Amino acid sequence: MNHDQTSAKSADLTTLRARPHLGKKIGKWFGLLTLAFVVIVAIVAGVLYSTALSSEKPVGFQVVRAVDAEGKPFALGIWYPTTAQPTSKWAGSFFMQVASNGPIAGHDLPLVVISHGTGGSITSHADLALALASAGNVVATPMHLDNFQDMSSVGTPAYITGRTQQLRATIDHMLAKWEGHQQIDSDRIGAYGFSIGGFTVLTAAGAQPDLASVAKYCTNNREFACDMLRESKSFLLNAELPVGTDKFEADTRIKAIVIAAPGLGFSFKAANAFDNIHMPVQLWQGDKDLSVPYDSNAKVIQDGLGHKVDFQTIANAGHNSFLVPCGPLKLAPICSDPEQFDRATAHHDMNKKINDFFAKNLKKK
């Protein structure tokens, strides 16, 4: 064996002896990193768990499947009074204290349906749903076709008339097919709608928008709703509308409605737009809402309803300020609010007023 071969063999032996030590170091660092990751996850989970949305009285929760008039299924989130002990349940970006599939407590319960905004979900107003259920209401929220998972319907008639039909289908399901339907008082039904959900609730309650006016309005005005309609190549921007898309049938089972930051409010400018609204209406607006400005939306509705409306404004609130409080992890854009605005505190006050409104106007006869 020559000198070069001897040196190479010696180097190989040195490397082999060093490898176990290197492996131990890598293993040690990997273990420390894994431990750190587990600790961080545990801390984050602990913070989210400890800040879970809660209610004064126990609230049950379940997600079921309902079907629309065409037989198409959609998800339905339901909150209701219960006697079961709540636990923390993950709701997509936060925890809420609910008793999953707990027994339904009470009889002759009012029903409140909630219509979320574009890109929303069944938990977009979970804190309001908890507050209403804690006060003795059954709350049902449909997952509309324009939700956070799929917004392809925005440019289609389903975004307008389909939403209203889905709200009706939700009431149908709750009164006839839900396991607790016999515990609901069909004469005590209310509705809450946010953003385009406000439009949905208004049309379900009997308001008649002038959809043919949307194209002209959006030609002469820059507004978030118009930008969204342009981006989706909406049929509303065409010279002629498809037959039937401007017809809305009032659901006379709805006895009181609450509207928050209503979208497409400018479509209700016609003198007869609210002739069929005969129930009490509460209307909410954030005074820093740049997405759905007051003058072209809420004000149009406020002026049209006149004495029928209980108008409420929230100082420093933007459009997204009406969505469920995000908790400690405010990662999504929907969690951002104008400066000096405390969403959790504002919602505490707002939810109480909404609860009081429904309690007053959905009294048992």
UniProtKB/TrEMBL annotation:
Residues forming coiled coils: none
Domain of life the protein comes from: Bacteria
Biological process terms in GO annotation: lipid catabolic process
Family annotation (SUPFAM superfamilies): alpha/beta-Hydrolases
Keyword field contains Membrane: yes
Keywords (A to Z) from UniProt: Hydrolase, Lipid degradation, Lipid metabolism, Membrane, Transmembrane, Transmembrane helix
Annotated TM spans: 29-49
Any one GO molecular-function label of the UniProt entry: 1-alkyl-2-acetylglycerophosphocholine esterase activity
InterPro entries: AB_hydrolase_fold (IPR029058), UCP031982_abhydr (IPR016986)
The protein, known as: Dienelactone hydrolase
Organism of this sequence: Undibacterium nitidum
